[in-house]
Design a protein that fits this description.
By secondary structure, the protein is of the alpha+beta class. The chain has 3 domains: about 5-130, Rossmann fold (3-Layer(aba) Sandwich); about 140-155 and about 230-365, D-amino Acid Aminotransferase, Chain A, domain 1 (2-Layer Sandwich), CATH 3.30.470; about 160-225, Dna Ligase, domain 1, CATH 3.30.1490.20. The chain has helices at about 20-30, 115-125, 135-140, 145-150, 170-180, 205-215, 265-270, 285-300, 335-340, 345-365; strands spanning about 5-10, 35-45, 50-55, 70-75, 85, 95-100, 105, 160-165, 185-190, 200, 220-225, 230-240, 250, 255-260, 275, 305-315, 320-325. The protein is globular. The two termini are about 25 Å apart. Magnesium ion binds near residues 310 and 323.
């Protein structure tokens, strides 16, 4: 009998996307093929405490998992010789126990989860892990860097202008540069955030100032982009950057059609003001161009495992990349797994594929 791989699913975290992570983790844990994997649940509280969780699965998406009776303090060790999770119990005199781990499946979103920091710890640990490495995670999390690197790779993005805190000292001059380069309306967004937090649309100089101030509450780097009129279309990419067969885009593309002004935080999580279309309602030549650009962008950023690459498709069929999400939302109704399902790969098989890719990358190092 082949032994099962012990896989640690890490969930929760200190970012503003803590709840999304809980729901994604629940789906991942319930769908991992039980005949091949033993799942260890490693939760990070909002305060940043690390614990092995041994309570009912339903408590995770309900946000009720962080109860002391279900928790054992535990940390992922950076020690490559004693690889795994060190749990130490509540009484420090008990000493530490090492739980060996074959693979880590991080299901964290946002700061300290998808920005390369956790990936740095995982690199040190030497344990194979699902998803992008340190540089790809950090570069995709930072829209400023994504734009810069993709421009160099010949992937079209919306015309943009970076804004830094000193530029606000001479706001009128900054606004003039933006108006000449981009015109109104524009989208203003923090460089390193997510879930549309701090994103707003501005139609004149006054609202530009307010939008910049809002974005600066989230990050010290801000982007202003020309507002693109068109459809929002998402592409699921799977594979390791350096594989001979290369990463692949799912055939099915997904369209997000917000009925509000744009795909805001509330449209994403709090109301049902957004229509989703799979497949996206775009012409096949735009769809094919989009899949090719998604794979080109994925490789240019050095992504591994998975990413959802988001685009705008304009009336004339032209395609512009908006952003790359590593890892994308992973709930059972999230776009990424749905696109693979619509392309013939069911959710449990997708998880199996992702862990296999992590093990292959781990062995190649
Ligand atoms: N340049 C743009 N033109 C049109 N809409 C935009 C533009 N940039 C962002 N948006 C809208 O704002 C939403 C959130 O912006 P996005 O860059 O995707 O940030 P996040 O990382 O928070 O998802 C998008 O889904 C889209 O609806
Ligand atoms: Mg987005």
């Amino acid at each position: 009998m082949v032994s099962k791989l012990r896989t640690a699913v890490i969930f929760g975290g200190v970012s503003s996307e803590h709840e999304v992570s809980l729901v994604s983790a629940y789906s991942v844990i319930s769908n991992i093929p039980a005949d091949r994997y033993d799942v260890i649940k490693l939760g990070i509280t909002r305060e940043g405490g690390w614990f092995l969780y041994d309570g009912p699965l339903d408590n995770i998406p309900a946000g009720k998992w962080a109860e002391k009776r279900y928790l054992t303090p535990a940390i992922l060790s950076p020690d490559r010789v004693r690889r795994g999770i060190l749990s130490c119990g509540w009484n420090p005199e008990q000493g530490a126990t090492l739980l060996n781990i074959d693979c880590v499946f991080p299901v964290l979103h946002g700061k300290n989860g998808e920005d390369g920091t956790l990936q740095g710890l995982l690199e040190l640990s030497g344990i194979p892990y699902v998803g992008c490495g340190v540089a790809a995670s950090a570069n995709c999390m930072d829209k400023f860097l994504t734009h810069t690197l993709l421009e160099a790779a010949g992937v079209p993005t919306a015309p943009w202008q970076p804004v830094l805190p000193p530029d606000m000292e001479s706001f009128e001059q900054t606004a003039q540069i933006i108006e000449e380069k981009l015109g109104y309306p524009v989208f203003v967004k923090p460089s390193r955030a997510g879930s549309s937090v701090g994103v707003s649309k501005a139609g004149d100089r006054n609202s530009l100032r307010t939008a910049l101030e809002t974005a600066f509450l989230q990050d010290s780097k801000v982007l202003v982009e020309k507002a693109i009129a068109g459809k929002e279309v998402e592409c699921a990419v799977l594979g390791n950057c350096c594989d001979v067969s290369g990463p692949k885009a799912a055939q099915a593309l997904g369209e997000i059609a917000p009925r509000q002004e744009f795909y805001s935080y509330s449209a994403k999580y709090q109301d049902d003001s957004t229509d989703l279309y799979i497949p996206a309602r775009i012409a096949e030549n735009s769809a094919e161009q989009l899949r090719q650009l998604a794979v080109r962008a994925y490789k240019a950023m050095g992504c591994d495992g998975l990413a959802r690459v988001d685009f705008f498709v304009r009336e004339d069929g032209s395609v512009l990349l908006n952003e790359i999400n590593t890892p994308p939302g992973f709930t059972s109704i999230s776009m990424y797994p749905k696109l693979w399902e619509a392309s013939g790969t069911p959710y449990p098989e997708l998880l199996d594929r992702l862990i296999t890719l992590a093990m292959e990358k781990g062995q190649a190092k």
